[in-house]
Amino acid sequence: MMFRSLSADFLKIRGKGIWLLILIAPIGLVAMQALNFGLRFDYLMKQYSDDPWGGLIENIAMFVPIALYLGCTLVSSLVAGVEYQMSSWKQLLALPISRTAVYSGKFSLCFLLLTVSCLLLSIFTLALGLIFGFEMPLPIAESLRLGLYPFLAALPMLALQLWLSLSFRNQAVPVSIGISAAIISPFAQQLSEWFPLNWPVFGYSGPNQAYFIIAGLVVGMIIMLIGLIHFNRKDVD
């Protein structure tokens, strides 16, 4: 049932600009560092002479949490907005498919879309390093960690944003919360590493990466289940 809902959701997002967002986000992050390294190439190569790949990945990693919070916010809002724009909630929920399948399908859709975007970030990072002439071997494992580890630690934000986006017809509330989280996240690093907005940062770097990734997965699933229960009980217009 969930797979039927997921397949239908993939069809619904065609022509809605969501795939363009999934592509543009990693391009934007890599383009920032292309400009950064392009303008200061000699200086940065001296600074990262021992590990130019590590320097490139480190510079990109600084902006990944902000991009993730914005991505979770916009993707969730756009996916939920499709149903509101078409005023199709009543028709959808009248079909012989459970609300659990509908909600799970939309969560899976958002998760898959953001996973694709994170994988593209890893690929584009490697491509940029090759363009700059960085030596082999390619740091494939590290680039995959750059894309995926922070995302897994940020799953609570995705679960929260989808819950809010499906609960409010006016998307201003969830979007405002998501943008605020993205803006605040760089300053949150002054707080405890266990402050939730810091999880994507420490899920990628630091000695306890696994703890933050596991915390993201567990808390993300808990919030997802709470949202699912609320969705099952809520009247949707």
Tell me the total number of β-strands.
0
End-to-end Cα distance, whole Å, is: 22 Å
What sort of overall outline do the alpha carbons produce when their principal axes are compared?
A: elongated
* Succession of helices and strands: HHHHHHHHHHHH
Number of helices: 12
Q: Please describe the biggest sheet, giving its number of strands, its sense, and whether it closes into a barrel.
A: none
Organism: Fontibacillus panacisegetis
Protein name: Permease
Keywords: Membrane, Transmembrane, Transmembrane helix
In short:
Helices cover 79% and strands 0% of the residues.
Structure write-up:
This is Permease. It is a single chain. This protein has one domain (2-233). The chain has 237 residues and is mostly helical. The chain is built from twelve helices and no strands. The chain is 79% helix and 0% strand. Helix 5 packs parallel to helix 9 (155-167) and helix 8 crosses helix 12 (209-233).
List key phrases describing it.
237 residues; mainly alpha; elongated
Mind sketching the topology for me?
Blueprint: H1 2-12, H2 18-39, H3 41-47, H4 52-61, H5 64-86, H6 89-94, H7 99-131, H8 140-153, H9 155-167, H10 172-188, H11 199-204, H12 209-233
Helix pairs in contact: 1-7, 2-5, 2-7, 5-7, 5-9, 5-10, 7-8, 7-12, 8-12, 9-10, 9-12
